[in-house]
Amino acid sequence: MKNFIKYWFISVGVMFFMTSIFNVLIDPYYIFNVINVPGINHNKPIQGGWEQVHKTIQLYRMKPEHIILGSSVAQYGLRPSFARELLGLKSYNMGIDGPTIFEVYKLFGFSINNSDIKSATLSLELMMFNGERGLNNSRFNDQRMEVVLKENSLNFLTMKELYRTVSSTRALKDSFDTLIGQYRPSYYYDDGFINYSLEQKNMDLSFQRSNSAYIDFLKNQNRNEKYFITNKGVNLIDVFKDLLALSHQNGIKLDILISPVHDYFLDSIKDKNLLSTYDLWKEMIVQANVKIAAEYKTAPYRFVDFSEHDMSKEVIPKGNNAKMKYWKDAYHFSYNLGDQILEELYKK
Length: 348
Fold this sequence. Notes:
about 45% helix; single chain; 12 helices; alpha/beta; 5 strands
């Protein structure tokens, strides 16, 4: 019986070790980068959802001179490759899914400490400033944002993240899916831009669903700044000011844009008499930019409001096989529009 128990533990230990080695080598989330073999693990189709780990590591590997900051809107629509053509600087897209402005601020600080950035493009949207969401999302690791990788990589992954990416059965499944899914492209390009298809089965339904998050936030709002304050008393407009101050302190050339939204969204908030809240937020962004610039005795950063872009009027097609050139839903736009935005932004 004792021998059985001993061999059982040995077997479990060996399986655990082999699983960990396999997951590290296949590396479905592109974190460890031990081997890169075409047809085995070169393509990473399962990367989605791990951008807060993957992108911070990739930024350190790439050492860009320019970054694009923002949410999934920036990830889907603003191509670093086109920014590089326009600016002549190696660019990386540091956009992540659903961040608060606090998370963007922290990612900006991490980027300054772990790359060679000289300039940045900041894509803003209202949901980043929703105080009801709190200071940050549950998967955000504030401790990681303080790490300077060239000096120390400790604390970069939490124990939970280490287990999840190395030894868990989910990681094992994702490793096998990566191995047998090499015919599929990587979720991200090497420059952090999402490799995706704009096609939707039902564009009309997609627009309806995408509107709900914004409308839910706006419907109870008025011209009262308390709605930008988290349950811990942090004003997210002040966090934006901290981001501006950080940029000034480090001599970063920052371009700020309000992301475009489709007329479907604008018409909805007008119908519900909610436009004043959206306009208030934009006024506060402008005022913060001017205020912080004055404190540093310099000009405000370049700011362009693209919320009512000409392409916002693209007709929403009907039918399950419908396609749109410029839009994925009411506020996620394609690089066809993103390229126009970057060109207009940098030429102003």
